Amino acid sequence: MPFGFKDPTKEWEGPVAREFHKVSTHTNTVRYDCLLDNGAYMWYVPKFLLSEVGKDNNWPDTITVNIGKSYNTRQALGFKPKPIPLYVGQGVCEFEFYEEKVNSFRYLIIYDAYEKPSSNQGYSLYIPKAEFGNELKPEVIYVNLLNVSYKE
Q1: DSSP letters for 98-137
Q2: In a domain, 4, yes or no
Q3: How far, in Å, CA of 60 to CA of 130, rounded?
Q4: Residue 2 confidence (pLDDT) above 80
Q5: Per the omega criterion (within 30 degrees of 0), is the bond before 138 cis?
Q6: Count of domains for the chain
Q7: How does DSSP classify residue 4?
């Protein structure tokens, strides 16, 4: 395959370890960025994902995560199959491709940590297009929280 062309049969799989740095705190999220030579990640991390490591609303200054293609099935089998929800667990969650931006792909999860159907909240992860190289973007990715650190 010539350089610059995508292989239509090969999806990016990862995983890659990335270090994110805290930028700002919002009502339901903490924004972290990860700068690369050829782009930047922006991740609005749901506070519930950090609840085990946050210290009295003092969110980590740096988080290290693995990001990769999720192999979990999204559709149940059967006569009127229902979609299987994205996985959300302690320190791990899945994001589904939502939209293409100029320099990135936006992945999204709709999740309400408190199970109030009227207040479903969307959480976004922007992955730079360059991260996937010449491979196709995966439809669903996972993020696994590996390590956190605080400034002294």
Answers
A1: EEE-SSEEEEEEEE-TT--GGG-EEEEEEEEGGGGTTSBP
A2: no
A3: 27
A4: no
A5: no
A6: 1
A7: T
pLDDT digit string, tens, across residues 95-139: 999 999 999 999 998 765 544 444 566 888 999 999 998 899 999
User: 113: Cβ–Cβ under 8 A, 6 or more apart, which residues?
Assistant: 46, 48
Q: Return the residue matching tokens 């939209």.
A: 99
Q: Is residue 115, in this structure, part of any structural domain at all?
A: yes
- What tokens does 56 get? 């009295």
CB-based contacts of 37, cutoff 8 Å, min separation 6: none
pTM score: 0.81
Identify whether 28 is part of a domain.
Answer: yes
Domain with residue 73: its CATH number is 2.40.50
Q: 3-class SS at 30? A: strand
- Among residues 132, 128, 121, the alpha carbon closest in space to that of 44 is found at 121
Range of the domain at 95: 16-147
Residue 43 identity (one-letter amino acid): W
